[in-house]
Write a structure and sequence with these properties.
Elements (H helix, E strand, L loop, with lengths): L3 H10 E7 L6 H11 L11 H4 L4 H11 L7 E6 L2 E6 L9 H6 L5 E7 L6 H12 L4 E6 L8 H12 L2 E4 L1 E6 L2 E7 L4 E5 L11 E5 L3 H7 L1 H17 L5 H5 L3 E6 L8 H11 L21 E9 L8 E9 L1 E3 L3 E4 L4 E4 L4 E4 L2 E4 L2 E3 L3 E5 L9 E3 L16 E7 L5 H14 L3 E3 L10 E4 L3 H14 L3 E6 L3 E7 L14 E4 L5 E5 L2 H10 L3 E4 L6
Parallel strand pairs: 1-3, 1-4, 4-5, 5-11, 6-11
Antiparallel strand pairs: 2-3, 7-8, 8-9, 9-10, 12-13, 12-21, 13-20, 14-19, 15-16, 15-21, 17-18, 22-24, 22-25, 23-24, 26-28, 26-29, 27-28
Helix pairs in contact: 8-9, 12-13
The chain binds guanosine-5',3'-tetraphosphate (G4P).
Length: 532
């Protein structure tokens, strides 16, 4: 049994989060700067992780192979002012996939990164929706303030309107004649002015001033100070205090302004984030909600990374610790298999290195060697017979029909498809009557198809083509059933069953979804599948 006080202390120290953003908003830059400010690296720019990022599938697969089990980029743990931060990567660009969404199931908060000139972009919206489903606390950082961008008031309006979340600006940008000088911190009631350092490679020196101090006018110019004071009055007049309950439920987002490139405004974001990020919420299980300070060890698998190497079927399962304490060498119960296992060399991802885990607490993410026994969503415990709620299936937006190149490999194909779907690499749909051979794949990101094709050939010996289909929406059927097999002939969409046998309808666009919903008013067409 763990010491309850030790548990409380360790949980309070841990902050597990993701950065959600649209490609190019500055996630790579911000990640590196978090490491810089956390003291995990000395000089930003030394790690050019982005440079290694590949877009072509062959490069991607090659990269997976090379990385093998060293997957530092998936989870990055680093200290910050006595806290232990774990940043779970949400891959963007070509590697956007269901893994991206699932990463958000393993985190307790998100930093939403916006480009000050572009505001709320498409991928941000999608990722935000997944955070919203979990009522997760979201902190917003408006980046690239060193460049001409949109008016901050306008940006707040856009976030509120487009995402339907309240905004509470904690810092406010100070820009004088196009030059970004620093931020005003509304809770500390202080102005922070920054000095630029070459390439933003080191922490930017800053001075703090009182908003009404006369020396501020020399530092910023009268015109800038006047504007700032007016803005602050306007903000103060408009708002109440930040409602921490609403923050914890993801109903209001604290907003910060700055530049990941020049480091201006970053310490204010980080300090507030570690102070204000609420404790992890209890997590739903089949025996009721489990709180992080529950003394029983519980954890679940949220990602499985397969090594593409044919000779070594090594896989790493990413496990999120939800309660209790993991100790080195401990036996854990694999609840689905109803069997005790010993986790082989579980690793943590401290800054840039992997280290073997000695102990783990709620909030930690550990990587364990998977000899093929884990599925996404599996629960591990110290013996307790509880199961976490399954991870949802996320709405795919790309669909393809699997066409066999070599019909002799029908059996291998069937097995391969089922396993890959179980593993969560792709979603598999079949027509309700079970017409043989008709397998439809659904993916959140297009690259998933290439990965599946590659793995079917290499791991199962089944050569396939994937013909793209024109649907782009999937909705799970709840409430009154619909005649799945007849939908297509009535142009209401394509009825199918998912890998768990749940009814799904695939649509060619919003118009078709709306038509179908009108025709079946007692049926709900929901965005998330219930999982296994
Ligand atoms: P991503 O991971 O979200 O895709 O974005 P990334 O950090 O790679 O940043 C995308 C581009 O935006 C990079 O420029 C980066 O330098 C720039 N950037 C990031 N943060 C800021 C900021 O605060 N201010 C300004 N002005 N630019 C920023 P690039 O030209 O594509 O690459 P690079 O040659 O600068 O590395």
């Amino acid at each position: 049994m763990s010491d309850p006080q030790l548990l409380q202390r360790e949980i309070a120290r841990r902050k597990t989060f993701a950065i959600i953003s649209h490609p190019d908003a500055g996630k790579t830059t911000l990640t590196e700067k978090l490491l810089l400010y956390g003291g995990a690296i000395q000089l930003a720019g030394a790690v050019k992780a982005k440079r290694a990022r590949a877009h072509a599938v062959s490069d991607y697969l090659e990269m997976e192979r090379e990385r093998g089990i060293s997957i530092q980029s998936s989870v990055l743990q680093f200290p910050y002012k006595g806290r232990l931060l774990s940043l779970v990567d949400t891959p963007g660009h070509a590697d956007f996939s269901e893994d991206t969404y699932r990463a958000l199931m393993a985190t307790d908060a998100a930093i939403m990164l916006l480009d000050s000139a572009k505001g709320v972009e498409a991928q941000t919206k999608k990722l935000f929706r997944v955070c919203k489903l979990r009522s997760m606390p979201i902190f917003s950082f408006v980046n690239k303030m060193d460049r001409p961008g949109r008016d901050p008031f306008e940006l707040i309006g856009e976030v509120e309107e487009v995402l339907g979340i309240g905004v509470y600006p904690i810092t406010w940008p100070i820009t004088v004649r196009g030059q970004f000088k620093g931020v005003y911190h509304r809770l500390l009631r202080q102005v922070f002015l920054f000095q630029q350092v070459a390439h933003g490679a080191e922490m930017a020196p800053m001075q703090a001033h009182d908003l009404y101090a006369p020396e501020l006018e020399q530092a910023v110019e009268e015109e800038g100070v006047k504007q700032l004071r007016e803005d602050v009055e306007l903000l103060d007049a408009a708002g109440d205090a930040l409602d921490t309950g609403k923050l914890a439920r993801g109903e209001v987002t604290p907003m910060f302004f700055g530049s990941a490139l020049t480091n201006f405004g970053l310490p204010q974001l980080l300090d507030s984030f570690v102070e204000m990020m609420p404790q992890p919420a209890p997590r739903a299980s089949d025996k009721g909600a489990i709180t992080p300070d529950d003394e029983r060890f519980t954890a679940f698998v949220f990602k499985i990374q397969a090594n593409m190497d044919r000779a070594h079927r090594d896989r790493i399962a990413f496990v999120r610790v939800c309660s209790g304490q993991y100790e080195r060498g401990m036996k854990v119960r694999h609840v689905r298999l109803d069997r005790d296992i010993r986790l082989t060399n579980p690793v943590q991802f401290l800054a840039q290195e992997r280290t073997v885990v000695d102990d783990g607490f709620a909030g930690d993410i550990i990587g364990v060697f998977d000899p093929g026994i884990f599925l996404i969503g599996d629960t591990l415990t110290d013996g307790a017979n509880v199961k976490y709620a399954p991870l949802p299936q996320f709405p795919p937006e790309h669909f393809g029909r699997v066409v066999m190149v070599d019909p002799m490999k029908r059996k291998q194909l069937k097995k391969g498809l089922e396993q890959l779907a179980q593993e969560g690499s792709v979603q598999l749909f079949r027509p309700p009557e079970g017409r043989e051979g008709e397998s439809i794949l659904g993916a959140v990101g297009e690259l998933q198809f290439d990965v599946v094709k590659h793995r079917l050939l290499n791991e199962y010996g089944a050569d396939v083509r994937i013909e793209r289909l024109s649907w782009n929406i999937a909705r799970w059927v709840e409430g009154e059933p619909v005649p799945l097999a007849e939908l297509e002939s009535q142009l209401y969409g394509y009825g199918a069953l998912d890998v768990h046998g749940q009814p799904v309808v695939l649509f060619k666009g919003d118009w078709q979804l709306e038509t179908c919903a009108k025709a079946f008013p007692k049926t709900r067409f929901v965005e998330l599948g219930a999982g296994a």
